[in-house]
């Protein structure tokens, strides 16, 4: 397939994908019969540029890295807003990577609906729309003969959704448990080495893992969003935020961590959900003291992991990065390659 | 797609797949638009049966479980040998699960070639043909517009090949390391609990993990075959048995295991290969003392695991079962579902 791509939003994730696409252009063409032209970019801060014949992305990245606006690009149509870029350009696939409120899902939700409504594919790393209405959006994509890809919303480029959908096809998945937040796992790893919670958090902030306000990570809210997504997309349920029991890691003391170590165990913040005999789902984010023979116990640093419970294979665990500029950008390529496979047949 | 399936060989793996297909018939049809009729079985011990309109598999399993020959089936054509069953029936997809010599690849290799030559798909759990000439067989399948699937040859139903091909698509994979043999991992797990090597081996034999002659497992030969397969299929190299350095676990003493435990480490038998700067590949099967922060260190009992080294995501590890009657039967369904996806488009 030859994609005509438009970026809605062009922050670090979009730039990360652009670098991958540029570096791997020939290899992707040869190995996957995957071809692309980037025809438009619309970013609320950086401005907007459209050329139906394609943009010179080296020039674009150069402008952006110098902190300049896209108006500085020598040719093309300037000033189209995001909705015009979605519906009035020749792009067939929209890369939705705007800065979006995770609770309301906006503005990503509006962009995704506009694109699907126009019969265009969308790939997006925004969690909000998936938490809010994954099932409706997937149905809307199918009804419009388009594709809505969102691999990156759970563990960035570690392909947990693709794994469930394709690689584990034929299994019935009854539940999962995972280390779904890298910041808290990093903090717990440092604490086991003797660092205090406060120092470990500070170190995580220095490394860019944790925000200045770390509440979303340490109180388990980030992991909770991922539990909701996995419950709805993989288990086929219909959870929302308030259906998930939650406790973060702020009450775990250095003493607790050392006591576990002496017992041959390890504290981890675990996000889990399990389908119950009555068909309901029990979901939570809670600190758990795991035995060192649990595959999740060996997952240290900012690395993430997810164990699926399947009927044919028992527990299947995947371990990989859960964040990062380039890794999250790469998750969009996973979605694009899925569209490409369907199109190439 | 509506498959017309023929079994060549009908031992525990073929029976395992049959049970899965029967139990999940309606679900597979609904969820994946996957339909099938089993039209023929040819087994060197159990005899052979063909009905172009399909066999009653409940009756077949009943005969087989009572130790009776397939001649006891009330209707259909009896006595066709494996090659006649492959080429002279209306089967479009051959399930090749004969008892095969892993060194020569026969008789599976002859069966696979005959099927591909007739433009029929083949799925097979036999390692020999893949070790010997995976690349040629995949090319032969492509040239005949057919599919050769062999997910089960590495870790049974844990889909390491499918993972590399689809779920990790877009990554360049430069190497791997894994726990590729369940028996040795089971023995090392028991030894860490204080059991002697001899007692742990005996226990593994009682549980059916190890053969009466355990050489293939404990000397690393089984893992070596999997290193060859992964090097050739995933890394695109052309290794054979003698290109892999090998050492088993027989020289690891209880004292070694306990010393590692005291250091916060664990012995594992690791199969690995890494592409070198000159393009060659360095492959080995060797006991390694892993830190407990290595994801492979947490993999205990008869469970297997594989870490791929990728350019975009760093290390990605998958953990799951590596053997078992039903798990290996299931690996054939993974291959069939891949054919089904391509066919349904």
Helix/strand/pairing category of chain A? alpha/beta
Number of strands of chain A: 13
CATH topology of the largest domain in chain A, by name, is Rossmann fold
Residues in helices of chain A, as a percent range: 40-55%
Q: Which oligomerization state do the chains in this entry correspond to?
A: homodimer
- CATH homologous superfamily designation of the largest domain in chain A: NAD(P)-binding Rossmann-like Domain
What is the total number of structural domains of chain A? 2
**Which series of helices and strands of chain A comes N to C?**
EHHEEHEHEHEHEHHEHHHHEHEEEEH
Radius of gyration over C-alpha positions of chain A, nearest whole angstrom = 21 Å
Largest interface: A-B, 50 and 50 residues
Assign the CATH class of the largest domain in chain A.
Answer: Alpha Beta
Strand content range of chain A: 15-25%
The CATH architecture of the largest domain in chain A can be named as: 3-Layer(aba) Sandwich
What strand order characterises the main sheet of chain A? 4-3-2-1-5-6-7
What is the mean predicted local confidence, pLDDT of chain A?
96
Overall shape of chain A: it is globular
Kindly report how far apart the N and C termini of chain A lie: 10 Å
Number of helices of chain A: 14
Explain this structure to me?
- Two copies of one chain form a homodimer.
- By secondary structure, chain A is of the alpha/beta class.
- Chain A folds into two domains: 2-157 and 325-344, NAD(P)-binding Rossmann-like Domain (Rossmann fold, 3-Layer(aba) Sandwich); 166-321, 2-Layer Sandwich (Dihydrodipicolinate Reductase, domain 2), CATH 3.30.360.10.
- Chain A contains 14 helices and 13 strands.
- The first copy, chain A, has helices at residues 12-23, 25-32, 57-65, 82-88, 108-117, 127-143, 152-155, 160-167, 182-192, 197-206, 215-218, 221-233, 254-262, 325-344; strands at residues 2-8, 35-43, 47-50, 77-78, 93-96, 121-124, 148-149, 173-179, 244-246, 265-275, 281-291, 303-310, 314-321.
- In chain A, helix 1 (12-23) packs across helix 14, helix 6 packs parallel to helix 12 (221-233) and helix 9 crosses helix 10 (197-206).
- The model of chain A has no long low-confidence stretch (mean pLDDT 96).
- Chains A and B meet through helix 2, helix 8, strand 12, strand 13 and helix 14 of A and helix 2, helix 8, strand 13 and helix 14 of B.
């Amino acid at each position: 397939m030859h994609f005509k791509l438009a970026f809605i939003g062009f922050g670090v994730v979009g730039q990360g994908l652009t670098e991958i696409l540029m570096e791997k252009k020939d290899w992707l063409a040869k190995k996957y019969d995957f071809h692309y032209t980037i025809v438009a970019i619309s970013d609320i801060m950086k401005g907007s540029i459209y050329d139906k014949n394609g943009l010179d992305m080296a020039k674009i990245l150069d402008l952006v890295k110098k902190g300049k606006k896209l108006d500085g690009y020598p040719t093309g149509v300037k000033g189209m807003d995001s909705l015009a870029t979605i519906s009035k350009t020749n792009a067939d696939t929209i890369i939705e990577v705007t800065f979006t409120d995770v609770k309301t899902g906006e503005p990503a939700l509006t962009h995704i609906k506009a694109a699907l409504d126009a019969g265009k594919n969308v790939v997006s790393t925004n969690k909000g729309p998936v938490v809010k209405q994954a099932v409706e959006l997937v149905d809307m994509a199918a009804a419009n003969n388009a594709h809505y890809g969102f691999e990156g919303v759970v563990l960035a480029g570690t392909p947990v959704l693709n794994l469930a959908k394709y690689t584990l096809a034929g299994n019935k998945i009854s539940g999962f448990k995972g280390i779904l937040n890298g910041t808290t796992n990093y903090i717990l790893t440092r604490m086991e080495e003797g660092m205090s919670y406060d120092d470990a958090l500070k170190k995580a902030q220095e490394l860019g893992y944790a925000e200045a306000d770390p509440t979303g990570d340490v109180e388990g809210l980030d992991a909770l969003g991922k539990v909701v997504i996995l419950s709805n997309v993989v288990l086929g349920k219909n959870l929302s935020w308030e259906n998930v029991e939650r406790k973060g890691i702020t009450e775990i003391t250095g003493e607790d961590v050392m006591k576990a170590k002496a017992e041959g165990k390890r504290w981890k913040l675990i996000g889990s959900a399990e389908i119950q005999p009555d068909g309901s789902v029990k979901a939570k984010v809670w600190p758990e003291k795991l035995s060192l023979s649990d595959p999740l116990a060996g997952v240290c640093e900012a690395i993430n992991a997810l164990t699926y419970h399947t009927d044919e294979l028992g527990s299947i665990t995947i371990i990989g990065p859960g964040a990062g500029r380039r890794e999250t950008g790469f998750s969009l390529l996973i979605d694009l390659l899925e569209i490409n496979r369907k199109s190439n047949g």
